[in-house]
Amino acid sequence: MAILQLHADDRLLAIQTAALTPSDVSGHPYRVEAAEPFATFRMDFAAFISTLERSLESSLSAAREVAAGEERAILVSATRQEREEAEDSLDELKELARTAGVAVLDAIIQRPREFNPRYLMGEGKMREVVIRALQLGATLLIFDQELTPAQVRSISELTELKVIDRSQLILDIFARRAKSLDGKVQVELAQLKYLLPRLTGRGVQMSRLMGGIGGRGPGETKLETDRRRIRDRIAKLERELEELSRGRQQRRQKRVRAGLPIVSIVGYTNAGKSTLLNALTRSEVFTENLLFATLDTSTRRLRFPREREVIVTDTVGFIRSLPASLMGAFKSTLEELQDADLLLHLVDCATPRVEEQIRQVETILDELELGDKPRLVVFNKADLLTGLKQRNPLIFMKIRQLSRQYGAIMISAADPASLEPLLLEMERRFWPARVDPS
Ligand SMILES: Nc1nc2c(ncn2[C@@H]2O[C@H](COP(=O)(O)OP(=O)(O)OP(=O)(O)O)[C@@H](O)[C@H]2O)c(=O)[nH]1
Ligand SMILES: [Mg+2]
């Protein structure tokens, strides 16, 4: 960029130039030269441009090399939420990125005074984010807000980087984690439905959108097919899902016919649902300290003393701003919750986001029209609270007050001995008359 300055008094013409650079010792991603008299200004423009392009190119390819092994992302939240809320959500996005195996280089919150619908933030700010990404060698921009197809397109016009949003990241995690046929079909369906409206852009952007993270699952070849073929595929998957759901329906009926009470464990992702199922029924469902360890429903029998039995099911965890397409996809899995006689709402009471998570789960249960099901709130990970009373009495009080408010039972799924009060309460709910009050 060059500007010409004409000084009115001495009628001297000056020129000043500036250029983007990959990075600079000063830390600025650009260099501004001093102004010079235009008359003596000399520049070999072709040589200047080719040197600059070479250096930009090498910094870009450094970023691309990383992409082969590990994706490196800048997280961006452009929002008008309260700062605290935005930070919470962004922290969770970091967790999601970690789960997806993406390294997070930086996280930026933008709270624009004026909302530019093209980029979710002002164009100037958007450019700054892109420059920052280049400097840090990022391969990916992940937005905490859902991007419309048009927004992805405008942002992609500003940058070579891949641009995805929270929904796409979640879809990607689901695609990696789906194990059963059911799960795989549901995830691919959700991915294709998410993709379809975004397929209107130019081909280049599409392949950029769909490589690597955010593009796992349907696979490159399928994604290069046209929309029509995607629609056909969606129709086929929907038929398949229907078929699968008939099988599931039969299993459900069998279960209901068996006449045993059904207890479904629901809750936010990573609350410890599978750990609780394992502890209650001495089984070995996969658990992990990453989000969305479970995608498929597991069902086990829990035996109480005196030959009493209930069926316990564990299912996919909930998360805030669950993409509508995913919610739809998992509807059939979540349908099983309709059969439950009791919902155990399991809460990780040691997370700083406990209140928000309880609220989110309640909202989702309402959306699934499960609001009226008998429910028992269970605070898990009580072991992590030891010492909190001394360390942070305020937070300790807050958790105690919350647990009273929800009539919660405190347990630690990791410690089977702590489950006694929960077992007693379940027994009391199902066989009220016969529980010995002593
Ligand atoms: N300290 C502690 N950790 C626990 C407890 N219960 C579960 N965890 C840990 O919490 C993490 C998540 O547990 P999971 O059982 O996989 O959680 P989940 O709710 O099934 O998670 P998703 O299937 O991902 O939704 C694991 O690392 C568990 O070891 C507990 O009582 N105390
Ligand atoms: Mg689980």
Automatic annotation (TrEMBL):
Q: Which InterPro entries match?
A: G_HFLX_dom (IPR030394), GTP-bd (IPR006073), GTP-bd_M (IPR032305), GTPase_HflX (IPR016496), GTPase_HflX_N (IPR025121), GTPase_HflX_N_sf (IPR042108), P-loop_NTPase (IPR027417)
**SUPFAM superfamilies given in the database record:** P-loop containing nucleoside triphosphate hydrolases (SSF52540)
List locations, semicolon-separated.
Cytoplasm
Q: Which UniProt keywords apply?
A: Coiled coil, Cytoplasm, GTP-binding, Magnesium, Metal-binding, Nucleotide-binding
Residues in a coiled coil are: 76-103, 220-254
Instruction: Give all residue intervals belonging to the Hflx-type G domain.
Output: 261-434
Record keywords: Magnesium included?
yes
**Principal place where this protein is found?**
cytoplasm
Assembly and oligomerization:
Monomer. Associates with the 50S ribosomal subunit.
Query: What's this chain's function?
Result: GTPase that associates with the 50S ribosomal subunit and may have a role during protein synthesis or ribosome biogenesis.
Q: Which family does it belong to?
A: Belongs to the TRAFAC class OBG-HflX-like GTPase superfamily. HflX GTPase family.
Identify this protein by name.
GTPase HflX
User: Which organism's genome codes for this protein?
Assistant: Geotalea uraniireducens
Q: Which gene encodes it?
A: hflX
